[in-house]
Structures are given as C-alpha cells and as structure tokens.
Amino acid sequence: MKLAELGEFGLIDRIKAHVAASPSVLLGIGDDAAALVPTEGFVTLITSDMLLEGVHFDLSFCDPRTLGRKSLSVNLSDVAAMGARPRHFLLGVALPKDVPLKFMDGFMAGMLEQAERFGATLVGGDTCASKGGLAISVTALGEQHPELVLKRSGARPGDLVCVTGTVGDAAAGLNLLMRGEREGFLVSRQLDPTPRVEAGIALAAAGCVTAMIDVSDGVLQDLGHICEMSGVGARLELAKLPLSDEYLSECAEDPFALALSGGEDYELLFCIPEGRDAEALEVCARAGVPVSVIGTVTAGSGIELAAPDGTPYRAPRRGFDHFA
Amino acid sequence: MKLAELGEFGLIDRIKAHVAASPSVLLGIGDDAAALVPTEGFVTLITSDMLLEGVHFDLSFCDPRTLGRKSLSVNLSDVAAMGARPRHFLLGVALPKDVPLKFMDGFMAGMLEQAERFGATLVGGDTCASKGGLAISVTALGEQHPELVLKRSGARPGDLVCVTGTVGDAAAGLNLLMRGEREGFLVSRQLDPTPRVEAGIALAAAGCVTAMIDVSDGVLQDLGHICEMSGVGARLELAKLPLSDEYLSECAEDPFALALSGGEDYELLFCIPEGRDAEALEVCARAGVPVSVIGTVTAGSGIELAAPDGTPYRAPRRGFDHFA
C-alpha cells in the first residue's frame, strides 16, 4: 500500500492508534497543538534535531525500524545531557510520495519502541510530502528540578574530565558502512546508538557534575563547547581515552584521530570536582555504563592533548561542522 | 559571505546575539537543550510544522524576511487555535551550502520581528546542511489555563459556525504568484499571513467557544476535522462566506470552490452556542478582527453546503492532503 492511498490523515490516525495515553498529556495527537501538564517544581527541557536523507542517514545502510530508533535516540541524548528525564516528543516527517506504507510502519515501530524504553510519549507533530528525500524532525521534551539541570557552563579549573562508554566507535562504524559492511559492533554503534538517559539522570541526582554535554560532534569539539561556555581550558591524556577492542582493530594506525574527532557516539562527556571520580563511577555503574577519567580542566583556554608518551599530540581534525 | 566561512557555530552565535533574555527562559540557545520555566497553573501547548522548499514555499515568490515571518506565523496560528498565548519557539533549519549569509540574516530578521510582535522567544533548535533545498522546522510553545484550552472536539448540534477575516484569499494569492504576480492584497495574504493570536486568546477567555481550529487546509477540510472530533455534522450557507473584494474579482466565475478548499488563510474557524454570536463578534472586534457566522452545527455527520439560492452545492474539491 502506498501513502497516497492512505492519505495524510489516514497516516496520522494509523500512528495515533499505537500511542498510549499518559496522565501528563491533557491532549495528544489530533488537535492543532498538544496540551501537556508540567510537573510542579520542574523545568521543561526542550531540544529539536533534523535528520535528512543523504546528510544524516543513508537508507541503504539501515532498515526503517533502526532509523526510527536513532531519530528519537539522538534527541533523547540531548535531554540526557541536561540530566533530565525524557517525557514527551513530537515528530515531523516529510515523505517522498512513493514511500511504501511498510516503511512508515517499520520506522514508527522503531521510534515508539525506543520511546517506551525511555519513557517518552509521542504527542504530536506534522506529516507532509517531500519532493527531495526523507526529512525527519524530532522535538524532545524532558523534565528536571531547576537546581539539578546540568549545563555546559559550570566546569572549573582542577575538575576531572570524564566520558561514559567508549568513543570513536560510531565514526569507525560509518567508515565500515561506506565500505559495504552492514553489521557488527561498530556498525550498530553508528546506526543504533543508546542515549545515556539513566546515567544522565543519576549524575544530576548525585550532584557531583559541574558541566555536561553529549558527544555528538566528537570529543574534541564537544569538550571545546564545555570549555568555551565555562571559560576554561582542558588537558586530555590520550592513553586514557576509552577505546573498544573493535575500534582498536579497525583504527590501529592512529587510534586517536577518529576517537577525538568522530561524532555520533552519544556518550556523556562531563566534568566533576577532583576527588569525586569514585562517586561518579559508582553512579554510572548502577546505571549500567562505565566511565573513564580522560583529563583535567585547566585555567585559560584551548585543549591540550598529551600522547601516551607525554609529548604533545596534534589532532588532524577537530570535529564535525555542517557548513565547513 | 558564505555560510561555510562563518561555520555552524558562528551562525548559531550570530542568531543568539539577536535574541533577548526572558524570565521564563532559565537556559536558552547554546546548550544541549533549552530549560523553560512553566507558569504555575498553566498547561503547555506545543506544535511543530515543517516547511520545505518546493512543497510549502518557492524562493522566487518571496524575500527571505517574509519567509521568516511566515515560517513562524503558521506555527503561532496553531497555538492561537488552542486559545493559547505563544511563549517560546525552536527553529530547525537545513541550508544548502551555497546559501549566502545575507539570506539567513533576512530570514532571521523576519522571524524574530514576528516573534517579538506575538511575544514568543527563540530558545533553541538546530542548524544543518541540506543536500536538497531549504528545509525549515519550527516548534512553537504556548500557555493557557487547562480549562480554557479550545479543542476541536466540543461542537454540539445547534452551535453556530464562525470564521474570522476572509477566506480563499491565500489560495487566490498562490494562483496569482504562479501566474507571475508578486504583490497586492491576495499575494500578501499567501506570503505573509497574520496568526489570529489576540482573537484566539480573547475567545478562550470569553468562554463562549465550543470548538476551534485554524484554517490551514481549507474551510471544508478544517470544519470536517471539528465535525469528526466532535461527532457532529454541519450546514454552511455559502452566501455568508466572508469573501474579500480582491478575491471576488479574481474568482468571479465560481467564488465558492476556492473559498471552501483553499488553505493557508490562517483564520480561526470556531463554533459557539446559539445566541452567543454578538459576544463573539464583540470579543474579536476588540482584538481587531471581524467575524462571520457561516452556518450551523447539525446532528449526524458530513457537511451540507447551501448555495445562495438555497439549493445544495457540491464542492469540486475538499482541501489539501499532502499525499493525495
């Protein structure tokens, strides 16, 4: 069945049938706007990301279900990076007219299973025709007590720089996809990232984090954002970068270049005061994710990189810029 | 100057410099997510719309500033249709790499002047490169007391059907644009619609509206949504459709077809109990917009159309469906 047979409003009804009611949703899909009931004493965290065919994803690389999951995951990762709990989301989707209904069914199944896993309810959005490729826009909302919100701007000289999980995997996975690979650990890190929602909330609650961001544009660039917003610099010890075995066997020649500049790992990069690393490690371990201390925050500006032998390392690339 | 020289983060800084602080914004542009402080006792209304080059707009039809205004207006219109006051918005924009910076400056100037006019603050979003045309995604947020929110679902048999302003103008304007016209009343109704924000809020406060929607897909289709959600039918008297002189001179042959099916007027279409029309007219007059009673809500389903001579009228088209 083609979308043209179902029509715009048939498609909306079809999506709506799969969405459960939630007490925080006074009015969900199907009106001019959704009406959400904020939790007393909380602020609303809100973020929006577009994903475009040919820019952010390649339909020959993945099935619709995985693309649905990732489209939500990258937005939930931004909510997680504030230390907030995801609550609601909106989906905008522009579809080429020849897209089979089966594609949309798979895409929505993936998106809604990821939503259920992380406690987010679909409350509205927009469907329209595209004369170019598929375009996806997700707006995700979360909640947190205002005093627990984790910004990019609180890092202080002497803080430790930490990162969850491993870095560089998603970029190495993308290289494999472009060479024709379609499975394995690195490929799945690129196509189906896991937003660190529980770790983000746990770190916020622990009160030991001074600044946080998610690694979407690469460690170097995202740490750069923390440094800029906090008015500090940083020194990274490359020997401490958490690299997976799969990544190391792919990038044996220079394991640091891609680990520093490769985006889309969607790990949490954060700073904590000296001496609170054991606490951060324990908090994240309880949330099911390992943490590594990879450097320190310094006075001044700029990021210094120390190779394993202690000599300065010069990164060949900084990270991803959409217009560069 | 090209965007490539400024870079993604330079562009974000450039936009941020034009946005004023607001006490309801704990954290605005520049972090992983914005943090908004909800007003106690209010619910959050949220809506999202995509606008795609070649589908929703044609860059040869309008200047960037007007496009910026319209991109926000269509979303504010959805907030207005809930009877809510606009508060915040997010902007996602996917830009072809050769777009001159001047284009973005004009676009943002238009969007931000419309935002200021209607009291909405830009709090975040996303900028990325597009390999196709320009793609815009706006998410708008508003607030209202939960008991004053105006849904599509409350119309009852016997209610009067009302609409603000005039209808059909935007569709007639689009026809003129496609024939090469670039100015005049009808063209400006298509390119630069005014969301009926003050009228929407005033109608909500008056408590006389049983159901409301904005006219984005055409009177017939949008009234159809109210009927479906309310479980009612309606009878429209075509002689009462508010048509502008400019529209009438363009569509003299059959003035009703386009007035019923033409979208993008962004007027408010609403139902009120019998006898409360004087009140609704007065409320809207104070908000600076005329109102016409164009029919009645009926038991049953479907929309009956009565020609000026009382005979049944059959509409050649229903309205806009993106996949039809």
TrEMBL record, chains A, B:
Pathway this chain belongs to: Cofactor biosynthesis; thiamine diphosphate biosynthesis; thiamine diphosphate from thiamine phosphate: step 1/1
Known catalytic reactions: thiamine phosphate + ATP = thiamine diphosphate + ADP
The protein's Enzyme Commission number: 2.7.4.16
Enzyme class, first EC level, given as a word: transferase
GO biological process: thiamine biosynthetic process; thiamine diphosphate biosynthetic process
Amino-acid positions noted as binding Mg(2+) 5 in the UniProt annotation, renumbered to this chain: D217
Positions with a binding annotation for Mg(2+) 4: D32, T47, D78
Residues given in the record as Mg(2+) 2 binding sites: D49, D78
Domain called PurM-like N-terminal: residue spans: 30-143
InterPro entries linked: PurM-like_C_dom, PurM-like_C_sf, PurM-like_N, PurM-like_N_sf, ThiL-like
Domain of life: Bacteria
Binding residue positions for Mg(2+) 1: S48, D49, D126
Annotated family: Belongs to the thiamine-monophosphate kinase family.
Function of the protein: Catalyzes the ATP-dependent phosphorylation of thiamine-monophosphate (TMP) to form thiamine-pyrophosphate (TPP), the active form of vitamin B1.
NCBIfam families hit by this protein: thiL
Note: Reaction mechanism of ThiL seems to utilize a direct, inline transfer of the gamma-phosphate of ATP to TMP rather than a phosphorylated enzyme intermediate.
Designated name of the protein: Thiamine-monophosphate kinase
Organism encoding this protein: Geomonas terrae
Name of the coding gene: thiL
